[in-house]
């Protein structure tokens, strides 16, 4: 005959599977990535000794100020992220826990993901060129634009590439700079018609922007809430929906006239 367990003994026995489950969860890899503020780059300047924007077939102008595209740095595609890592990142203000598929939407192997990000960047550059030349009513048959930015993938620099091309070719349209001599940062995809799209990770990108001297941050309007969540002091958010709204806001900011939208 089996002896009867006391209540403490029964609880201990029943609790063993729970403890084992928690221990397993704590060390098992989870489908998340940890992200933090990444590098920024001035699209009006050089990156690793090479001009980011090179234009042929049309005169360019000397620019003042900076237009900084921003990135986030995430754990590598194959990195092991555990429950402990997730909990640490969840409560940190300079890190974020993001679904792995949102950071690496290409899926597959590391090479597949790298290929996907490169393709997204190249498509973004083509769209940025088309949007900028379309905005300036210039023909791509006459004006050629080369965009070079090493070690950066994905489409989120589209808006800043477009603004950089416009500033190089036309400035604010009346002899001034789009930047007004400021350090402007921002993020957002762009399509050939000039529509700005959301990108994700904006709370971390604002931190990278302020760290590298930006005082104004252009953000897709749909992501205002996320951008305000951990907004650094001294950084002004300007929501945009289209290329025209971005240019109009920068011109109004530069000249001190007109309405500059805010989140």
UniProtKB/TrEMBL annotation:
GO BP, sorted A to Z: protein catabolic process; proteolysis
Chain ranges of the Lon proteolytic domain: 154-240
GO MF term set: ATP binding; ATP-dependent peptidase activity; serine-type endopeptidase activity
Gene3D superfamilies membership: 3.30.230.10
Protein name as it appears in the record: Lon proteolytic domain-containing protein
């Amino acid at each position: 005959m089996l002896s009867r367990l006391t209540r403490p003994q029964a609880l201990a026995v029943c609790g063993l599977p729970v403890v084992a489950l928690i221990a397993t969860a704590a060390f098992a890899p989870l489908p998340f990535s940890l992200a933090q503020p990444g590098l920024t780059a001035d699209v009006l300047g050089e990156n690793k000794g090479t001009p980011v924007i090179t234009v042929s077939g049309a005169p360019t102008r000397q620019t003042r100020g900076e237009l900084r595209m921003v990135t986030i740095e995430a754990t590598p595609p194959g990195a092991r992220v555990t429950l402990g890592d997730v909990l640490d990142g969840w409560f940190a203000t300079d890190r974020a826990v993001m679904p792995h598929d949102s950071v690496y939407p290409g899926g597959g192997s590391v090479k597949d993901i790298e290929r996907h990000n490169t393709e997204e960047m190249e498509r973004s550059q083509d769209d940025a060129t088309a949007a900028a030349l379309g905005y300036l009513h210039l023909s791509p048959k006459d004006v050629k634009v080369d965009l070079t930015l090493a070690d950066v993938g994905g489409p989120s620099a589209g808006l800043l590439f477009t603004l950089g091309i416009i500033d190089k070719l036309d400035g604010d349209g009346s002899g001034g700079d789009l930047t007004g001599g400021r350090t402007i940062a921002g993020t957002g995809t762009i399509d050939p018609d000039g529509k700005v799209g959301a990108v994700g990770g904006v709370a971390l990108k604002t931190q990278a922007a302020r760290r590298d001297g930006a005082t104004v941050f252009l953000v897709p309007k749909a992501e205002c809430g996320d951008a305000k969540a951990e907004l650094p002091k001294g950084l002004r958010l300007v929501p945009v929906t289209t290329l025209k709204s971005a240019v109009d806001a920068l011109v109004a900011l530069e000249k001190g006239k007109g309405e500059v939208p805010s989140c």
